[in-house]
Amino acid sequence: MSAQGLNGLNGRGFTRRATISDVAERAGTTKSTVSRALNGYPDISSHTRARVERVAAELGYSPLSQAQSIRTGRVRSLGFVLQTYDHDSHRPFLAGFLAGISRSANAQGWDLTLTTAESQQATLDVLRRLAVERKADGFILSRPERNDPRVSLLLSENIPFVLFGRTNDPTGCSWYDILGEEAMKEAVVRLHGHGHRRIGFVNGGEHFSYSTFRLQGYLEGLKECGLEFDANLVANNAATTEQGRRAALDLLRLELPPTAIVYAVDMAALGLYRAAEEIGLEIGRDISVIAYDGIPEGLFAHPPLTTFSVDRVRAGERLATQLINRICGAESDSQRETERAVLLKRNSDRPPIRSSEEFAVCLSRTAQLQLSEKKEID
Asked: What is the pTM for the complete model shown?
């Protein structure tokens, strides 16, 4: 059968719809191979998949979605539940992340089903409902918790999923993640190279898995630099600007305050800028800071925030591909990827102008001056 007699050749001269048999004949393979190639099965080589996809495009072949759903039991849709109760659920980077998922899914003939939930229980209910009603074949879960009820639910129901992040227990889990621990370690080593010897650490939410890894990186950085760990230099549960501000003020009130601070979350690091403004300090001069996330606000801070950037478009693309592979039968441990964040060198981290002891005296004088000014105003 010539291509001219089939549906879809440049939209001209078709007399009937191209069939899977036509694709198999033209590609020189079996109908089963065509089906598995177009459905993303991992046992089909990339070369064969590319050849089948090219022939299918030439012939204008696309499987009837209803028939395909009946045959495979799949609706070819990836699920993502936006948790609106998270402190930063509407961050600008979410658009890039979702764009990456959609781009990769669409390229493979899949869709994205996006919905919202306003509580943890609502999230579990939505995941269960979408699976039962066959609205999604599997799910992408972002920011996993140490003991994540979403993971427990999906594992118990044998529903495919992938994580944007890692868990403490990898059993049955697939993921794409950025090595936050390597970023924190690099931040400590960089600050030590500047000459800082008292380096604080402000971690994010303790219930999230990422906090475990980022603390680990901070500790490894101290060890590599020959610096002793001081629990007083570590603050936790700072994910917002206000939480980051309070953590900064607590660290600066120490008898021996840090001359530099590593923040696990950019938004919290911006709280240090507020604290510095309140007590008359200059970021990058009086105290240095390096953070993690690469949010746009960091670029417009004064001075711009040195931070580790994450390519969330790529993250979305890789997670979509991983989830499709899992849905098509790939083992969980075969779908695990990690990459490093990219350091954006700006002006918030510089060599210290005074030691921790001298900084403490400076802060004490500043506090006394502020108290004196307050009394005069009163």
From this structure: 0.80
C-beta separation of 83 from 126 below 8 A: no
- 329: nearest Cα among 49, 98, 72, 51: 72
Asked whether residue 66 carries a pLDDT value surpassing 60, the answer given is no
User: What token pair was written down for 222?
Assistant: 């101290």
Query: Where do we find the tokens 């001081």?
Result: 230
Which residue, 284, 279, 274, 199, is CA-closest to 235? 199
For residue 12, the model assigns a pLDDT of: 37
| Residue 40: per-residue pLDDT | 66
288, 191 Cβ separation under 8 angstroms: yes
Q: How many CA atoms lie within 13 A of 173 on its CB side?
A: 23
Q: Residues with Cβ < 8 Å from 356, sequence gap 6 or more?
A: 197, 198, 256, 257, 258, 259
Burial class (CB in 10 A: 0-12, 13-18, 19+), 216: middle
3-state secondary structure of 222: helix
Residues in the chain: 378
User: Which pLDDT tens digit goes with each residue over 69-103?
Assistant: 444 568 999 999 998 887 665 565 788 999 999 99
**Distances 307 to 187, 244, 341 between C-alpha atoms, Å:** 9, 15, 9
Amino acid residing at 236: N
pLDDT in tens, 135-146: 999 999 999 999
